[in-house]
Design a protein that fits this description.
Length: 341
């Protein structure tokens, strides 16, 4: 931010009250054409913090793109106090190929932050993004989905030991927060390490727009922006129940012990009890079925969508719920007639 309240990046500035849509060059193709990421910067007329919203660091994870675009282009931001930096597609080469990684040597852009000038192509791209559009911010939300072939219920990943990240992680108002430090090279981890508290929002599956999840994430963004005063008319929302998963014994990836074709018996977000059969691994003749039971009572945060496994492949991600939370979730998931509705 410059003294007059403008948001500045290498090559431009966005004054208070101004919105800019730009395509910013971060690399060049084999043909020498620019690789440009779409960026929308909305600088409110009133002072306030600067927040970035980013998506598609993994090129095939699409839900977040719609979240970021709707904030940028459909929200009424006339009362905005602060600046929003919208980065709907970080990994443009991956997005064009509809694949997770950068097509150049299959590099993971989300392990290349904060990047470095004069280094590999992925680190140069990360460096351009990071220095121009992340470093000037006060907080950030990076949207992801599950890896192809699996799906996640909407949840936040945040380093809850960091006071500033904790504030943002709570403000987003998701039911489930998985407390972990962002791995080295991730946008979340490196932005947080650089003093910009950043959370990841995981939602749904790759290659899809899932309207219900997009709406839930938009509500989360509004709630987070309310917490930081970007949107004074909005309020921070309480999600009804919340569980913060910290220790590794409170969560587990249940892995297949047999190869086969998987019959999943629950959707992501379902509550399962210890001993419940979550899935059945079958062979082509359906004559040697292998049941998979829940090792403890908890919530299925992630499940397999592409129903085939080798031994060792993940089937689902189960997180433990404490007793009071379990009862609230149970009531919420009970059939409508049982709730008297
Ligand atoms: Zn991702």
């Amino acid at each position: 931010m410059s003294d007059d309240g403008s948001f500045t990046y290498n090559g431009g500035a966005v004054a208070p009250g101004e919105t800019q849509n730009l395509r910013y060059g971060i690399s060049e193709t084999y043909l020498g054409d620019p690789v440009r990421i779409p960026v929308t910067i909305i600088n409110g007329e009133r002072d306030g913090p600067t927040a970035f919203l980013s998506a598609a660091a993994h090129g095939d994870e699409l839900n977040g793109i719609e979240v970021v675009r709707e904030v940028a282009h459909e929200w009424d931001l006339s009362e905005l106090a602060g600046t929003i930096v919208c980065l709907p597609v970080l990994n443009v080469p991956g997005f064009l190929a509809q694949q997770r990684y950068l097509p150049v040597y299959d590099r993971d852009l989300n392990r290349s932050f904060p990047g470095r000038a004069g280094s590999t192509s992925s680190k140069r791209m990360a460096h351009q993004i990071f220095t121009n559009f992340v470093e000037p911010c006060d907080l950030g939300i990076d949207f992801h989905t599950s890896t192809r072939g699996r799906t996640n219920m909407l949840h936040v990943r945040a380093d809850m030991a960091d006071e500033d990240v904790h504030r943002l992680g709570m403000a987003f108002g998701s039911n489930v927060v998985i407390d972990s430090e962002g791995p080295s090279g991730t946008l979340r981890g490196e932005a947080t390490a650089a003093g910009i508290p950043t959370i990841t929002v995981e939602m749904g599956e790759a290659h899809r727009f899932q309207r219900g999840l997009i709406d839930a994430a938009l509500a989360g963004v509004e709630s987070a922006f309310a917490e930081y005063g970007l949107l004074e008319q909005s309020s921070v929302r309480w999600p009804g129940w919340r569980t913060i998963i910290a220790g590794s014994d409170e969560k587990t990836w249940i892995r297949a012990d047999a190869g086969g074709i998987v019959d999943m018996h629950y959707d992501s977000g379902a509550l399962v009890r210890e001993g419940d059969r979550i899935a059945t691994i079958t062979n082509p003749f359906k004559d040697d079925n292998e049941p998979v039971a829940a090792p403890f009572t908890g919530l299925l945060v992630g499940v397999l969508e592409n129903p085939v496994v080798y031994p060792g492949n993940p089937l689902c991600h189960l997180v433990e719920l404490d007793e009071p939370t379990r009862r609230v979730v149970e009531a919420e998931q009970a059939p409508a007639d049982a709730r008297g509705a």
